[in-house]
Amino acid sequence: MKILDRYILFTFVRTFLSIFTILMFIFVLQSVWLYIQELAGRALDFDVILKFLLFAMPSLVTLVLPLSVLLTSIMTFGNFAENYEFAAMKSTGISLQRAMKSVIYFVILLAIGSFLFANHVIPASQIEFRNLRRNIGKLKPAMLIRSGQFNEITEDFNMRVAEKYGDRDQYLRDIVIHQAEKGRLGNYTVIIASEGELISSIDSPTLSLKLTDGNYYSEVQKKDYKERKKEPFAKSYFKTYTLNIDLSELDAVDLDDKDINNSYQMMNIVLLDSSITELSKRYVEDRTTFSDKYIHKANLTSLDSLYSGVTAQDKVVKDTLLDNYEVKDRVRILEIAKSNLNNTVADLENRKNKLKVDVKRLSKFEISLHEKYVLGFSCILLFFVGAPLGAIIRKGGLGLPIVIGVVLFLTFHFIGIFAKNSSENNSISPFFASWLSTFILLPLGVYLTYRATTDQGIFDVDIVPKPIKRLFAKKKKEVIITPTVDKSYVLTEDEIQLLDSFSSNQLKDVVKNYKDLGYSNDMRLAAIDRLDQLGITIENLRVQGYYQDSK
After folding, report:
1. Predicted pLDDT at 252
2. Which ranges constitute the DSSP H helices of 117-236?
């Protein structure tokens, strides 16, 4: 490798590592603020918090890495152009492509590494992150009772408070509690109280909740089905009521437990491909089974049962189907048809919603598969956008390059987000949604690379005004006038209007100083003609010194 290649590559890598570190730090801080409510009040050790952030960092690489490549490209090559280093290279016969050679190899290796990272490291980190987040959510939820929403204290105990107050927020106001029973689905016990107080001890695993001035409501589950249909319940009023909640099981949460492992974010390309095949096959089978079911239900053979006891000779087939039955049978048929129609509509709506969920899930798996390839390709593409752009604008540093880079990346990123959301709604295919932002940015990269290698600007300024001028320019009509005192002259309509507005003194100035005033000789002749019409002849102008015969 030549000294010049090492210099360019070293400058690029040094800038890249600096920007990548800064951006990763910013995004990690943003993650801390995003998950601060889940971490606060849990009495977590520092190593658990550090592990939480460490597992969250790999997923941030999908945003930080392309943005770092774009900003580094603009800043590095912008500095080279601003300091006339490119001019020195070109004077020795080194083109822009040759100067980019070593960096191109580095970016290609970076793209391959990003694909391997997205295929192996990110899925493994997501397994750890999602399970750790879930386990932290089980840990000491009583410390995180938020006002205005239901808080899950335990699996069978939900509480909502309107307001917390006191020096330790131990006093509660307007409390609603939903309490479930083991072995029964749903919340069958509701407790409402106007005031409450949390009483706990550091050494005790029990949380006491003292309620005052409230009502207790509980549905009674009868074994007899007929009695159950009467919906029996028990209701009572209390002045003071104390609930003891055992939190000992929650304090024994295993933070290393891994129950979640089937999300699309936790799979590599092999698992994603097999999952997509399985989901697609199941989706087609569900649609086929559902359609066959309704084809089978659409037959009308069951109507023949209403002809029981009627001989073939007594049957009279009429044009309208219902006219073949008695009035009571018609009512029965219409009621059955109405009931079947309502059931069918409800069934179709449920199936429609289920198919939407299946399509959305399948789209997410396909998008996750393509994103692993898009990450590497986007690094290469953004380099070929940023490097020539920096060479063209000839500006380095942290000012203009940062603004341009962030605007380009936000456009690139938001196009991808909108396309993926459309794909989840089945508006566009997952493949097109994943690659749309790169397809849009690819022509820009080719265009900028061509303009930079040919020493041209981003666009030619002279190309735009000419068609605009030609479009909006007012076409001037020329008028040939034969004067009374001299030879004929040619004027435009604008010049005629200008002469009409001149006074006699202004006309004399035009005759004498037409060149200094920027007028043509035709304007001078026209001014002489106008003065002659006003009674001021050429002789008068000659005597007054306004007119001299041309030699």
Report:
1. 45
2. 122-138, 225-228
